[in-house]
Amino acid sequence: MITLIGEKLAKKGLTFIYHGPAKACEDCRYKSVCIDPLETGRIYKIKEVKETEHTCPIHENGKVKVVEVEKANIEALIDAKMAFEGSVILFEAPECDEECNMRSLCFPEGLKSSNKCKIKKNLGRFDKCKKGYKLNKVLLEIISR
What we know:
This protein is mainly β. It folds into two domains: about 1-70, no CATH class; about 75-140, no CATH class. The protein is about 5% helix and about 40% strand. It contains two helices and eight strands, in the order E-E-H-E-E-E-E-H-E-E. The strands form two sheets. Strands 1-4-3-2 form a four-stranded antiparallel β-sheet, with no helix packed on it. Strand 3 (about 45-55) and strand 4 (about 65-70) form a beta hairpin. The longest helix has 4 residues, at about 30-35. The mean pLDDT is about 95. It comes from Methanothermobacter tenebrarum. It holds the Pfam family UPF0179. Belongs to the UPF0179 family. InterPro entries: UPF0179 (IPR005369). This is UPF0179 protein MTTB_06600.
């Protein structure tokens, strides 16, 4: 998918989370290319940076570059019984109110409950759950909203 990003940020491999449009974007002539393809709360990875530049009042130096992006794969902890590489799952965060240093993997940014995901890689067993859940760390590819 094609979008626009600030000239200084336009680097292949860069990941970013899209938090929604700025007020100045509402009447911009590039809106349909720049922000309309992006989904709020998702993490994207830049696959390719094009040479084309446009002016933009909200970015540093007043310039944006055309880039090709894809939704980034996301590391998460899921129920070990579902952690088979290549399988498609509906992501569901666990019922948990514990504060621990792995919480960001149980409730990863860019991933929402009921998202359809493909398990790209099983990264192994995770044995440090305070609730006693049997979890595996996986790399997920979002395949639908």
